[in-house]
Design brief:
Layout (H helix, E strand, L loop, with lengths): L2 H28 L2 H15 L2 E6 L4 E7 L6 E5 L10 H6 L5 E5 L16 H14 L7 E6 L1 H12 L4 E7 L7 H13 L9 H11 L8 H12 L2 H11 L2 H4 L1 H5 L7 E6 L9 H8 L6 E5 L6 H4 L1 H15 L1
Helix pairs in contact: 2-8, 4-5
Length: 323
């Protein structure tokens, strides 16, 4: 083969690679959400987490599963406008001595919205539907919820205590406080919420608000997160409006006296979203005090994002104390 042919072949290879690289970059720029999908898939593979779907009578749930099904089960319930992937930090640090499930609530993540009825009690029944089709009722399980998920988990414990081994609420929504009322009134007045970002700058500001120590994301990751969120923002806005209505905003507080399940209550001392003073309200209104209360120093609302390892150690210490 002559040198001219070799150089021509190399030039073609370089040209093809350049074109493919440009096409890939253009695709990533227009559809950055696929970067997030790739990252999520990589994380699942790396840590042995399996993504599954299961169909119930009303909903088709997307969920993550980790650990042997014969082990004690931890069911994780995420917060407002979040998803099952918010628990990646928990999955990374939890022992395989547990069977861990994280489910997307309807309208969140990859669980489609099938019902126009939304609100705390509706979500409680959706979680119960998932529990039934996963055959967790006979086995009993440990229930963990953060923020809105904590609200849902707490109310679930008042309605179905016989199904639970323990309850963990992390910075739960659903407790009345002057700080929360001011935020809700401001959101209504300005017709804008920190939890409904429209731009990368607003998304970055949201993460700064949720966490005590700033979490830095590359621009391409922020773009991917934003693109995924914007596709659901109309639903999130509607849900947010429902959650500040009187029949939804404090369901947990009105039913705290009914919680009999052993409770671990965790709060970030620097939570800007839901005030840490709510811990005292919860302790006062429960007929039996929480089994354990943990206030995390230098942590905001995003406990699972900021301190997943500390959360796991605290949870395991609590579960060991029940044995």
């Amino acid at each position: 083969m002559e040198m001219s042919q070799i150089w021509t072949g190399l030039a073609w290879l370089v040209g093809i690679n350049t074109v493919l690289t440009v096409i890939l970059l253009l695709f990533m720029t227009k559809y950055p959400k696929y970067i997030m999908y790739a990252y999520n898939a990589f994380t699942r593979i790396k840590h042995g987490i399996v993504k599954k779907k299961i169909k119930g009578s009303k909903n088709t749930f997307s969920y993550l599963e980790y650990g042997p099904t014969t082990a004690p089960t931890l069911l994780l319930v995420h917060g407002f406008s979040s998803s099952k992937e918010s628990f990646f930090g928990v999955f990374k640090h939890i022992s395989r001595k547990f069977h861990v499930l994280a489910v997307d609530l309807p309208g969140h993540g990859e669980t489609p919205l099938k019902d126009t009825d939304i609100g705390i009690l509706h979500f409680v029944e959706c979680v119960n539907e998932f529990i039934k089709i996963m055959d967790l009722e006979e086995k009993k399980f440990h229930l963990v919820g953060g923020s809105m998920g904590g609200h849902i988990a707490g109310v679930y414990a008042t309605l179905y205590p016989e199904k639970l081994l323990s309850l963990c609420m992390v910075c739960p929504h659903g407790i009345n406080h002057e700080h929360h009322e001011k935020m809700a009134a401001q959101a209504v007045q300005e017709q804008k919420s920190m939890l409904l970002p429209q731009t990368k700058e607003e998304l970055r500001a949201m993460f700064t608000w949720l966490t005590h120590k700033q979490v830095n994301f590359p621009d391409i990751i922020l773009s991917g997160i934003l693109q995924i969120r914007l596709e659901k923002n109309d639903y999130y806005k509607k849900l947010g409006e429902v959650l500040i209505q009187d029949d939804n905003k404090n369901v947990l507080e009105r039913n705290l006296h009914k919680i009999k399940t052993p409770l671990l209550l965790i709060w970030g001392k620097n939570d800007n979203v839901l005030h840490p003073d709510c811990v005292e309200v919860i302790k006062e209104k429960m007929s039996e005090p929480p089994k354990k209360v943990a206030l995390f120093e230098d942590v905001g609302h995003g406990v699972f994002l900021e301190r997943p390892r500390k959360f796991i150690f605290t949870l395991l210490d609590f579960l060991n104390s029940l044995e």
